[in-house]
Each structure stands twice: as structure tokens, then as C-alpha cells.
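Raw record, unedited: Isochorismatase
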Amino acid sequence: MQSAFVTGPDTVPHAATVLARTEQLIAKARAADALVVQLQNDGPEGASDEVGTPGWEVHVPVDTERGEILLRKTVDDGFEETDLEELLRSRGVTALAVCGVMSEMCVSATARTARDLEFRVVLPHDAHGTHDIPAAPGISDAVPAATVSRVAEWALGDEVEIVPSADDVSFVAP
């Protein structure tokens, strides 16, 4: 999760909860000696996650001493154009807990590909978030962020395990 979306002007609604739950998941994974992989989006020039800007930095530090990994990406899907699948398979990972921002973009795209690659995918409802969708004249009123996140979950289908809370997720070492 990058700083731009949990601090400053581009903060998602409920950022404090999403951040706390993400930190909780990372702490639980670390305690179980499970692999932690963070994805960092290389946003375009002028974007809040533009490479090298404070917003581009991952908000929760990666513990490289522990063997945690930071993968950079340029598209929503964390598997596309990265070594994520190979990394997970080489470490014996068969299940993923996916969290972060944006629910309908990076979170959804990464969870969908993980599911398609036959990983077990768990998505805690309180550990992902996004922005409100503005009104589109003649099309729709504004859509609240909580609704956008819930629709993103629903669109993933029943092969992704949606759980209410990060409290409902446990980890084991691969």
C-alpha cells in the first residue's frame, strides 16, 4: 500500500481502518513466518504515485532482513509483467491474503489473476479500499467508496473467499 492513498490529499475514505488491517495482516504473516510480498505501483509522471515521490513509497516498511519482497509494477495486476507467480510457486505458496488499494483496480485485478492461476485467495473486507466514484451526468449519481469496494468483491465471484475482517485470516509458513 502506497503512502499517497493513506496520507495526504489522495487518501481513500476509511484509510485508517484499511491501513490498520493491512498492518495487522502483515504482523500475523510475519508471526507465522509466512511470505510477505508488497507491490509498489510505478505511477506515471504527475500521478500521486509517481516514481520517486513521497506518495510512491510503500507505507508499511518491507522487512528485507526477514526475506520480505517488494515487487514494482506498472499495471493494476500484480502478476502481469512481474515475477510474482514464479516467486510464489518457488516458495511453495498456495494461498494468498490480498489487501490494499484500490479495490476495483489493483486489488481486484491481482485477486482475479491469483484465482485464475488456482491460488486460494482470501480477501478481508476491511483490508482494502478505494475512492468514491464521482457522478456521471446522465449516467449515475456518485457511488460511495464502500459500495465500490463491495461491488469489486462481488465481481470476483465465489472462488475468492471474502471474509469480514483481517481478524478472520490466519497464516502458515509455506
